[in-house]
Amino acid sequence: MQAHPQVADVQQNGCCAMANVCCGTDAAGLARKQRAADAGAFEAIVAALQAHPQDAGVQQQGCLALGNVCSGTDAAGLARNQRAADAGAIEVVVAALQVHPQVAVVQQNGCGAMANVCLGSDAAAIARKQRAADAGAIEAIVVALQAHPQVAVVQQNGCQAMANVCSGTDAAGLARIQRAADAGGIEVAVAALQAHPQVAVVQQSGCRAMFNVCFGSDAAARARRQRAVTVGATEAVAGAMQAHPGDAAVQRRGQRLRDLFA
Questions:
Q1: What is the reported pTM?
Q2: CB–CB of 197/240 below 8 Å?
Q3: Taking a C-beta distance cutoff of 8 angstroms, is the pair 202, 155 a contact?
Q4: What is the pLDDT of residues 7-31, one digit of tens each?
Q5: Per-domain boundaries in the chain
Q6: What is the pLDDT of residues 162-181, one digit of tens each?
Q7: How far apart are CA 105 and CA 85, in angstroms?
Q8: Do residues 70 and 117 touch, judged by C-beta distance below 8 A?
Q9: Half-sphere exposure of 144 (CA within 13 A, CB side)
């Protein structure tokens, strides 16, 4: 990848190989992700995405590779997220989403990468969330959800990305939440729940996104909750909990939403 930056097929296949090698969440998988990061994977992937913005194949595989190398919730995983952001990952993923709105697999992988890069609650993670919002991530995620309502993985990853970017209780976090609502985030989260009632991971992500976008105690937050109820959120959450009685994550997130709406 470093030797042939302008050859799109090399970059696409290199990113594909990186995504496959760095798949997995067990100890060995996490070790491979770290080894890839240490070898310069983030910088190579970002360079590929920057060099071939119009090539959907490069964008698809590059976003998938970023998401896979970034995944991980331990300290090393969060450090990889920051390294990806430092390499410019947030901006290239937003660009991929914006340039290829009708390519479902780009939207799926781009939202997945954004969700991973923006994971976390420490100061560095909050800065990544804000950087994503400033780059246009919130609007791009909503567009992805609107464009591919029947693609379950787009809905899952899009809702997860919106939930991660829009988490935060400080003034900047609440502003991100309101920005998501203004972009149509409430409606697309409800639509995701309604369109995929039997897909547990969509129900989990949709409920989490809805909770984050409706969170708060001021008048604006109350207005967001009323808007959610008006477009069918209460019924959608009840349907999620009824459809997945044995799924602890659906039940927990659904109950949190019910309590919030109450």
A1: 0.95
A2: yes
A3: yes
A4: 999 999 999 999 999 999 899 999 9
A5: 1-135, 151-262
A6: 999 998 888 999 999 999 99
A7: 22
A8: yes
A9: 37
